[in-house]
């Protein structure tokens, strides 16, 4: 396993070597450290932070500054993984100039290795422009969360022949534009397999079956930190929310019963200093003035 920082070139090579690509989201330094130590290949600073970190109902309220803030933390924690930052809603849809400026900020200010953009053939010209100026781009097809209101919420995309053909064409357009990878979200497994076979760049699935070149999941879903709902496409490897709640209850019990902090967590005065202080306080009979060395400026 490569120990230096992975690049988009490394990710593309993994497809051709038939090596599965493992991706997860992260939003802070500590989480990024843990995922990096586990050998995760891609860490996505996703706009899902709006839901699992900020408590919003969708990803739409997330701002570019939000992503920048979290991406900086993740970059400090991840030494090996390729870190990709989401371009949030309305950070690239208004104009090409806006998109170039905002993507450039993510690269310059957060030092991420790539950005991710949602959309099909309509965003291919933008992806081509970004790649030409040196900004690697990951595409995102299928269910695109920034279009949740027009799509009617999280729904499987590409169920009809026409929709399936459109998704294949979209994937080919993104690959031709220079995207180094394409996320396929909530795409029927057989269609995801067709797309994977027809594009030269890696596909990274989420809710799209096992035939994609890689898999991405949301950190909080995978480890049971987000309790509002559990997507069908995730597998819960831990129930951290339950464990943390139980631990917090135990902490509350220990504090209220004065069993924490105990001797192991306590620092005290040396016995001779403690005795001297008690004698001083006894003689002072009430009012206590600071004892300072003569000439002290403290």
Automatic annotation (TrEMBL):
A Pfam family of this chain: Pantoate_transf
Molecular function (Gene Ontology), one example: methyltransferase activity
Active site: 185
GO biological process entries: methylation; pantothenate biosynthetic process
Subcellular location: Cytoplasm
Record text on cofactor binding: Binds 1 Mg(2+) ion per subunit.
Binding site for Mg(2+): 47, 86, 118
Methyltransferase listed as a keyword: yes
Cofactor annotation: Mg(2+)
Alphabetic keyword roster: Cytoplasm, Magnesium, Metal-binding, Methyltransferase, Pantothenate biosynthesis, Transferase
Annotated InterPro entries: Pantoate_hydroxy_MeTrfase, Pyrv/PenolPyrv_kinase-like_dom, Pyrv_kinase-like_dom_sf
Catalytic activity: (6R)-5,10-methylene-5,6,7,8-tetrahydrofolate + 3-methyl-2-oxobutanoate + H2O = 2-dehydropantoate + (6S)-5,6,7,8-tetrahydrofolate
Keyword Zinc-finger: no
Family: Belongs to the PanB family.
Record NCBIfam families: panB, PRK00311.1
Role played: Catalyzes the reversible reaction in which hydroxymethyl group from 5,10-methylenetetrahydrofolate is transferred onto alpha-ketoisovalerate to form ketopantoate.
Record text on subunit structure and interactions: Homodecamer; pentamer of dimers.
Protein name: 3-methyl-2-oxobutanoate hydroxymethyltransferase
Species of provenance: Candidatus Muproteobacteria bacterium RBG_16_60_9
Record gene name: panB
């Amino acid at each position: 396993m490569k120990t230096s920082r992975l690049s988009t070139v490394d990710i593309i090579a993994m497809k051709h070597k038939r090596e599965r690509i493992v991706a997860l989201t992260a939003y802070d330094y500590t989480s990024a450290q843990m995922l990096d130590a586990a050998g995760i290949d891609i860490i996505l600073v996703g706009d899902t932070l709006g839901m699992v970190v900020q408590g919003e109902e969708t990803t739409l309220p997330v701002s570019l500054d939000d992503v920048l803030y979290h991406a900086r933390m993740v970059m400090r924690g991840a030494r090996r993984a390729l870190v990709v930052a989401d371009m949030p809603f309305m950070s690239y849809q208004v104009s090409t100039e806006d998109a170039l400026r905002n993507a450039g900020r993510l690269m310059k200010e957060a030092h991420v290795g790539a950005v991710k953009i949602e959309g099909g053939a309509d965003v291919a010209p933008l992806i081509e422009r970004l790649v030409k100026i040196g900004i690697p781009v990951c595409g995102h097809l299928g269910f695109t969360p920034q279009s949740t209101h027009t799509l009617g919420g999280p729904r499987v995309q590409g169920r009809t022949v026409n929709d399936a053909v459109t998704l294949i064409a979209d994937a080919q357009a993104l690959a031709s534009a220079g995207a180094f990878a394409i996320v396929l979200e909530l795409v029927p497994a057989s269609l995801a397999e067709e797309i994977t076979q027809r594009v030269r760049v890696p596909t990274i699935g989420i809710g799209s079956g096992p035939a994609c070149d890689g898999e991405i999941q949301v950190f909080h879903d995978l480890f049971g930190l987000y309790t509002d709902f559990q997507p069908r496409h995730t597998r819960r490897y831990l129930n951290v929310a339950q464990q943390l709640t139980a631990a917090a209850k135990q902490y509350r019990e220990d504090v209220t019963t004065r069993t924490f902090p105990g001797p192991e967590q306590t620092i005290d005065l040396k016995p001779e200093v403690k005795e001297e202080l008690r004698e001083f306080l006894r003689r002072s009979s009430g009012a206590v003035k600071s004892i300072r060395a003569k000439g002290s400026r403290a």
